[in-house]
Amino acid sequence: MRSTANGQIVTLTAHGFRAELATVGATLVSLEYQGRPLVRAFDPQQPRPVYSGAILAPWPNRVTDGSYTWDSVPQQLPITEPERGHALHGLVVDTDFTLAGRTEDSAQLRTTITPSPGYPFEVELVISYQLEAGGLRTTATATNLGTEAAPFGWGSHAYLVAPGDKVDNWILGLPAAQVQLTEGQRLLPKDVVAVAGTELDFREPKKLGTTFIDHAYTALDFEGGKLARAILTDEQGTGSQMTWEQACGWVQVHTADQEDPALDRTGLAIEPMTCPPGAFNSGEDVIRLEPAGTHQASWLIGPVQGG
């Protein structure tokens, strides 16, 4: 282990995989299979760019205006996305998690969200990383340590990659029949509509090209009623994939359009989520975490090997 601007760095190896984790944000820094990157890595000695690899809790994406009502009590969160006026990506992206255990191929990171303005609840988070034969599995477990029910949601923020340097040249397959539209520069969540007949339909894999995506998808096709699978490859069929369980009924996809050339469309964010953007405002799919109650979600990032 070594200490960096992103906390301690933990390296896992097994089954031809090598993963680097940072304790700040319980972040996935890098993941390779047989030396080939599966996610867009970053230098842990530098500030983490655009939430790369971070765990998002107790909500993913945005709380509009940072304000919501829970059990008839209005709450106001700090505005952490001032350019749009929202509370973004939860409360733990900058938290230095405790390394609670590790082996050569696994690590367990732990923290507790304590009561704070806008979120007066106490929730323990345990993030377990495990290298398996198929890839890196993340299992996220939340437990309500408080005496009142807490609103809760999960997400993760990995940027998947395929061989080549740009999203434009990659092929995406995403088994989602619906997408949530947004309005204006503030990305206010609007209606959920069918993807059929739109450029946002990737149920049949197709080249991303210049398509801009920063949308939450739903109505996912879970294989065998168990796993949803997003696949990102080059034209030879080599790349990466992410699978996740039904606990995450939403997935945010973002083509990573940025002003910084090193970040601009150089990875595709695939973010399984338990609830959509604005969920604390709308109440849609928000988990009601009762006192002593737990919730668990799991996802896996692995390789796709071309022919």
Walk me through what this model shows.
This protein starts with a strand and ends with a strand. It is globular. It has a single domain, classed as Beta-galactosidase, Chain A, domain 5, CATH 2.70.98. The model has no long low-confidence stretch (mean pLDDT 97). By secondary structure, it is an all-beta fold. The protein is built from 1 helix and 28 strands. Helices cover 1% and strands 48% of the residues. A 9-stranded antiparallel beta sheet has the order 11-12-13-14-28-24-23-18-21, with no helix packed on it. It has a 6-stranded antiparallel beta sheet with strand order 17-26-25-22-19-20, with no helix packed on it.
Task: Give a quick set of tags describing it.
9-stranded antiparallel sheet; 1 helix; 307 residues; mainly beta
Short summary of the structure?
The chain is built from one helix and 28 strands.
Side-by-side strand order of the widest sheet: 11-12-13-14-28-24-23-18-21
CATH class bucket: Mainly Beta
Provide the succession of SSEs.
Answer: EEEEEEEEEEEEEEEEEEEEEEEEEEHEE
Number of strands: 28
Distance between the termini: 37 Å
Q: What is the average per-residue confidence, as pLDDT, rounded to a whole number?
A: 97
As a percent range, the share of strand residues is: over 45%
Uncertain spans: none
**What is the CATH architecture term?**
Distorted Sandwich
User: What is the count of distinct domains?
Assistant: 1
Number of helices: 1
Which sheet architecture does the biggest sheet show? Answer: 9 strands, antiparallel
Characterize the quaternary organization of these chains: single chain
Q: What is the CATH fold-level name?
A: Beta-galactosidase, Chain A, domain 5
GO biological process, one term: glucose metabolic process
GO molecular function, one term: aldose 1-epimerase activity
Protein name: Galactose mutarotase
Pfam families: Aldose_epim
